[in-house]
Specification:
Immunoglobulin-like; five-stranded mixed sheet; 12% helix; globular; disordered N terminus; disordered C terminus
């Protein structure tokens, strides 16, 4: 909880909620109210404020067409990002940066997801301003959701496949089949 409050407190210092962050782009119709979402991206789970990662693009894509991209800042606190003017909607937040994969952090622990789906509304405003991701260097980011936590997924294929002939585990996938 301390980490979430610290991130929100830093955003209060950085800019008022109505200010547009340089480097943020967005488009789409905002029906009803609009909100600010944001958070931090860091490389050390035990030191999120001291290990912020600047320069990470964060995309926001909402169900009803709103889309925006922010980039984490370098100062005054590295790794912070925000997007203003997000309409009430369900949105997917995705960081991406060459050489890193990402793990969403909730309650101080990774949930191994590389994106997060949020509901943007007044009730969720506080948590939507404290979205956190752990950046992990030198991983295979192209494997799929959760790959950053699981390592490389290896698949062995021989011949054709029939339903019920394969097994998948969290760490490895084995496919068995007959031509």
């Amino acid at each position: 909880m301390k980490r979430l409050l610290t991130v929100s407190a830093l955003w209060a210092i950085l800019a008022p909620a109505s200010a547009h962050q340089p480097g943020t782009t967005g488009h789409g119709a905002a029906g009803g109210g609009s909100f600010t979402i944001g958070g931090s991206i860091y490389t050390n789970l035990d030191d999120p404020i001291g290990s912020g990662l600047p320069g990470v693009p964060v995309s926001v894509q909402c169900e009803h067409g709103f889309a925006a991209q922010a980039v984490t800042v370098a100062a005054p606190a590295p790794g912070l990002w925000r997007v203003d003017g997000v309409p009430e909607d369900t949105c997917i937040v995705t960081p991406s940066f060459q050489g890193f994969c990402f793990q969403h952090v909730a309650r101080g622990e990774s949930d191994c997801m590389d994106t997060i789906t949020i509901v943007v509304n007044a009730s969720n405003q506080r948590q939507n301003q404290s979205i956190q991701f752990l950046a992990v260097a030198d991983c295979n980011a192209g494997v799929g959701p959760g790959a950053c936590c699981l390592g490389v997924l290896s698949i062995t294929y021989t011949g054709g496949l029939r339903p019920g002939r394969g097994t998948v585990s969290r760490r490895r996938a084995h496919l068995r089949g007959r031509p």
